[in-house]
Amino acid sequence: MSDGHGSTPDTPPGWASNQPPPYGDAQGTPWAAPGSGPGGPSPSQPPPQYGQQHGQQQPPSSPPPPYQQHPGHHPGQQPYQGQPYPPGQPHPGQGYPPPPYGYQQPPPALRPGIIPLRPLGVGDVIDGAIKLIRSNPKAVLGLSAIAAALGAIPVAIGQALTFGRIGDAFRNNDPTALETTGQTDFLADYGGSLISYAVQFVAVTLLSGVLTRILGRAVFGGKITTGEAWRLTRGRVPTLFGLVAIEAGILLLPLAAVVGLLYAAAVSGIDLGAFVLVMVLVMILYMVYAAFITTRLVLAAPAAVLEKTGVMASLSRSWRLTQGSFWRLFGILLLTSILAGLVGLVISVPFSFAAAFVGILVSGGTGVQILLAILLAIGGTVGAMITYPFQAGVYGLLYADRRMRAEAFDLVLQTAAIEQQRQGWVHASADDLWSSSATPGQPGQGAPWPGR
């Protein structure tokens, strides 16, 4: 019986029939099929859209809301409207939010030359070093071949003598000849290596300076001839030799102290096990020291060439630029050494095997010795001809990267690159941009960019 308030026998007293379920009329339940049951939509009423409650009417003047395509939707597939969303698929509102109004993707960094003009990643450094060789192969590989040949020839001569004498000993089946060979070839092997190191000290030092000057122009997409690179670098040769001499002294003096300590321990009659333990610990400490010094001073040569600073100023400049980035630089230098060693090994090993077979199978003689020396020299020269410029390129690009990160030097490079693109060519005055006076702020005191 009605109580006069529009209630039904199923509703509690005092509640109107238009109250929400369970006290009012059912507006359709998820358990009833559309169009069936007392609360289902009438045939003239369209089924509710996704996200629309039963009973809500869309304004007749406005079109239905557009369906938001979900990430898993494929072109040509009909969207699900008025039906439950397929299981396992994300809700349309749960995807990535749309970009804010007016958002535009930032343009890529300028790349007029071998690197993008922004702080560099590891891949950018390796790729830039390779592009340095490819962008100016005549100058880069030509100079590297000269330096590599000067360093490989003394070693090749000593190894050729060794292979020839070992081959004679095997062919004559004379074990005593092997012992004599080992004693007589000691001077040939180590003498050739010492001469090679002395030659490399001169040749590689000059090469690194010239290649750094070529790199400074290649960053802007410009090329430079061998003669021009040498003309711009020869004034920095005394500084480069001074840097190498000081760095060698910093590394060799502690090594001499280590050798003296080990010799004193051996003479004192220390136990063999204790002596080996002390030797291993001392060598580990020295390797850590050498890695630290080499990493902190690796940017001295590029700074000396590009900024035209003196010996001590270049060392101090490298020390400041590498501050706070030791482990990153150390990792890149270690990776560079591994890559260069593998490339050199892959190139030189076939020539070494060929020389060994010739020395063992062919009777000895002057002609055979010359052939062995030629094979070994070719292998060493080709391998070093590629690894020398690669390593020099990595050092120069690390220098550029540290300046971009610590001094916002990429702004200087970008401004110059835009002006050069407007003019349509790279002027020789681009070399002056590497001077520290072109950097915003004092050398080493520029404000670093956030997150760099």
Could you give a quick summary of the protein structure above?
This protein has 452 residues and is an all-alpha fold.
Could you walk me through the main structural features you see in this protein, from its secondary elements to its overall organization?
Residues 1-114 are annotated as: Disordered. InterPro entries: GlyceroP-diester-Pdiesterase_M. The chain crosses the membrane at residues 140-161, 194-216, 237-266, 272-305, 326-347, 353-378. Keywords: Membrane, Transmembrane, Transmembrane helix. This is Glycerophosphoryl diester phosphodiesterase membrane domain-containing protein. This protein has a domain at 122-435. The radius of gyration is 38 Å and the shape is globular. Helices cover 60% and strands 0% of the residues. Helix 5 (237-267) packs across helix 8 (311-321). 29% of the residues are buried. Residues 1-41, 67-74, 76-83 and 439-452 have low confidence and may be disordered. The chain starts with 121 loop residues before the first helix and ends in a 29-residue tail after the last helix. It has helices at residues 122-135, 137-172, 175-218, 226-233, 237-267, 272-296, 300-306, 311-321, 326-361, 366-407, 409-423. The chain contains 11 helices and no strands. With 452 residues, the protein is mainly alpha-helical.
